Amino acid sequence: MASSDVTKSVTIRVLIVDDHAVVRQGLRSFLELQDDPSALPIEVVGEAINGAEAVELASRYQPDVILLDLVMPVMDGITATSNIVKRCPHSRIIILTSFGEEDKVFPAIRAGAHGYLLKDISPVDLVQAIRAAHLGQTQLHPDIAQKLMTAVAEAGSLPSSRRHEPAVDALTERECEVLGLLAGGLSNREIAGELVIGETTVKSHVSSILDKLHLEDRTQAAIYALRHGLASDEP
Questions:
Q1: Pick from 85, 144, 146: which is nearest to 119 by CA?
Q2: How many of the other CB atoms lie within 10 Å of CB of 130?
Q3: Which residues of the chain form beta strands (DSSP E)?
Q4: Which of 126, 149, 183, 219 could anchor a disulfide with 231, C-beta 3.0 to 4.6 Å?
């Protein structure tokens, strides 16, 4: 089983999930040709042709990053995401699809996807997204990010009686700092380094933030921070 500590990894282990053989072959060929001496090499550990197979292979290989299509036979990508998150809590799931409609985007993110990219992404940008996801950073296609921000803005226009959004003052000063850095794309390890605290402490703060704000995941927390002007300017 792969270690959950990225500092102990010798490669970024990727599982490719798509029902089209040409897509899988193209992704594998390109990813395995990457040769950046300053970064961890990318290793494709497996290919799955549907969601059910993706769950099985993810459980077996515990990959660092999973590139997952949405529309597939046997089991769709959203259902697969939910199942993989339960079995492989350290794997980062990037949805890679041709579908950018809201009825696909929002359920995928709620299911636990760490990123949502469209297949028009350039190969170079895809590699960068995989490396960033491996570090715990959320990866969103610009169009998808816009949809999420629009949804946040529309939710903000609802009467408070319908929103039921917890106030930011429910957070401690330290939790606000953690939330701001999280929204800036920093991983737990990077937040720990920035605030000079333990990574376990950061995880505890993140859990407390999600609980207090009634949020389900880091993506929702990042959107909350952006909406309330809490995102850190730290790189």
A1: 144
A2: 23
A3: 12-17, 42-48, 65-68, 92-97, 115-118, 139-140
A4: 183
pTM recorded for the entire structure: 0.64
Q: What is the rounded CA–CA span in Å between residue 227 and residue 154?
A: 11
CA distance 101 to 229: 27
pLDDT tens profile 1-12? 343 444 456 899
Q: State phi, psi for 113 to the nearest 5 degrees.
A: -65, 140
* CA angle, residues 209, 212, 214, in degrees to nearest 5: 100
**C-beta of residue 114 within 8 angstroms of C-beta of residue 64:** no
Retrieve residue 214's tokens: 């009634």
Picking from 115, 16, 128, the residue whose alpha carbon sits closest to that of residue 61 is 16
